[in-house]
Amino acid sequence: MSPILSPIYKGGSPLGNLRKKRLREIIDLSEKALNSVYFMYDIAFKDYRLGTFSAIKEIEYAAPLGLNYYYLGNYIKKNSKMAYKIHFHPYEKYNWYDKKWHPEP
After folding, report:
1. pLDDT (tens digit, 9 = 90+) per residue, 7-19?
2. For 103, how many CA atoms within 13 A lie in the half-sphere containing its CB?
3. What gap in Å lies between CA 2 and CA 43, rounded to an integer?
4. Sign of the CA dihedral 48, 81, 32, 18?
């Protein structure tokens, strides 16, 4: 079982000093992957594209650890707040019907 990590973990937060600006992330770190479980921020920062920023910072954090995968978390097509996730390539989508991962279209 991989640990669920709060914004404070070994090596600090992927978001560094920006945590002081009322940003929080929760990640799940396993032997092969980093999973971005949840990211939240003060609505006053909504125009700064912080979902994209946090993904980039988490990837930067994961790369030197030698992790094979980065999971951006759930994606709901009709939820515009999640639209930034489709701009990261390559990506795969999990199909719950056939229980397989499929490469991006």
Report:
1. 433 445 555 555 5
2. 2
3. 31
4. positive
Beta strand 69-71 pairing with 33-41: parallel
This prediction's pTM: 0.70
What value does the CA radius of gyration of the chain take, rounded to a whole number of Å?
14
- Residue 46 contacts residue 27 (beta carbons within 8 Å): no
Q: How far apart are CA 52 and CA 15, in angstroms?
A: 12
pLDDT digits (tens, 9 = 90+) for 55-84: 888 888 888 888 988 988 888 889 888 888
CB 3 within 8 A of CB 29: yes
